[in-house]
Amino acid sequence: MSYENLIVEIENRIAVVTLNRPQALNALNKGLLDDLSAFFDEAKTNDDIRVVILTGAGEKSFVAGADIKEFASFNAEEGQQLAGKGQERVFNKVENFSKPVIAAVNGFALGGGLELAMAAHFRIASTNAKLGLPEVTLGLIPGYGGTQRLPKLIGKGRAMQAIMTADMFTAEKAEQIGLVNEVVEQVDLLNRAKEIAGKITRNSSIAIAQAINAINASDKENGFAIEIESFGNLFEEEDFKEGTTAFVEKRKPNFK
Ligand code: CO8
Fold first, then answer.
1. Which SUPFAM superfamilies does its entry note (predicted)?
2. Average pLDDT, integer, range 186-215
3. Active-site residue numbers?
C-alpha cells in the first residue's frame, strides 16, 4: 500500500495512516483526497487491517483544512462538485467504513480537517490540538459535512456559535464538550490510539461492523429496526458461538 500523500504502516492488524503534506499543514488537496479514497477501498478487503488510525505528519497539524490555494479560483459548479465528490468518496466512506476508524488529532484540525476527524468513528487528541470550522472567514461554509456532523457531536447551539465565530476549540474544551474522547500529551498520542485499537482488535470484528452500522443508523427513522436486524443476524455467526462458549468455559474468546 503505497501512496504519494499518505504513509501507511500496518502492525498487529492496525493501520496507522499519516496524512503527509507537512509543507501545507497536511491540507486536503485533490491528490490527498484521491489517496484517502483509494486507501479505504483497499483496506476494506485487506484482512491484515482491523482498525485504522488517521493522523497528520509533523507536530503542528492534523489537517489544516481543504487546500485553499487549490479551490481559490473555483466557481459555484466546481465548488459543489469538489464538495460533493469529496463527501461521497472520502468523508461518507470513512463514516460508513465497516472497520473502526480513529482520528488521532495531533495539532490543527480545521475546516476539512475537523470534518475528516468528525467522519471518523471517534477522536482522541494531543494537548496542543486546536479544532474549528473557520470557513466563514473565507466567505464559505463547511462543505465536507461539518454543518451536519458538528451539531450531532456537540449540540446545535455550540455548533452554531463555533461556525459563526470561527473560533477554535482547545483540546481541553473539545474533550469537555464531547468533540474528542480524550486528550493526552503529543508524545503519547499514537501509543494511546494503538492501545485503544489493540483492545478493539481482540473483539469480534463481525459484531463491530454491525455495531458501526447500527450506531450510524441512530439518526435514521429506522435505527431501532436496523439494530434489531443486525442483532439477530449475529446469532448465525461463528463469533457468537465462540464468544458465548468462551464465557461459559471461563476463558478468553479467540475470534477468527
Ligand atoms: N490550504 C493550503 N495551504 C495551507 C492551508 C490550507 N488550508 N493551511 C496552511 N497552509 C499552508 C500555508 O499557506 C503555509 O504555506 P507557505 O509556507 O507556502 O506559505 C504553510 O501551510 C504553513 O502555514 P502558516 O504559515 O499559515 O502556519 P501558521 O502557524 O502561521 O498558521 C494556521 C497555522 C492557523 C493553521 C494557518 O495556516 C491557517 O489559518 N490555515 C488555514 C486554515 C483554514 O482556514 N482552514 C479551512 C480551509 S476551508 C475548508 O477546509 C473547507 C472545507 C470544505 C471544502 C469543500 C470543497 C470546496
1. ClpP/crotonase
2. 98
3. 115, 135
Residue 230 CA to residue 213 CA, distance in Å, equals: 8
17-74 confidence digits (pLDDT tens): 999 999 999 999 999 999 999 999 999 999 999 999 999 999 999 999 999 999 999 9
What letter would DSSP give residue 23?
Answer: G
Q: Tell me the helix, strand and coil percentages in the chain, rounded to 5.
A: 50, 15, 30
Q: What is the ipTM of this complex?
A: 0.98
Locate the ligand 1 atom nearest the alpha carbon of residue 24 and give its number.
Answer: 21
Report pTM.
Answer: 0.97
- Residue 103 Cα to ligand 1 midpoint, Å, equals 19
CA neighbours closer than 13 Å in the CB half-sphere of residue 26: 30
pLDDT at position 97 over 90: yes
Cα–ligand 1 centroid distance for 205 (angstroms): 37
Distance 51 CA to ligand 1 centre (A): 29
All structural domains of the chain, each given as residue ranges with its CATH number in brackets, are 6-201 (3.90.226.10), 205-248 (1.10.12)
Binding-site residues, ligand 1, Cβ < 6 A:
24-25, 27, 64-69, 71, 79, 82-83, 86, 108, 110-112, 134-135, 138, 140, 142-144
DSSP-assigned letters across all residues of 231-252 = HHHHTTSHHHHHHHHHHHTTS-
Block residue for cell numbers 465462540: 242
What was the pLDDT predicted at 221?
A: 86
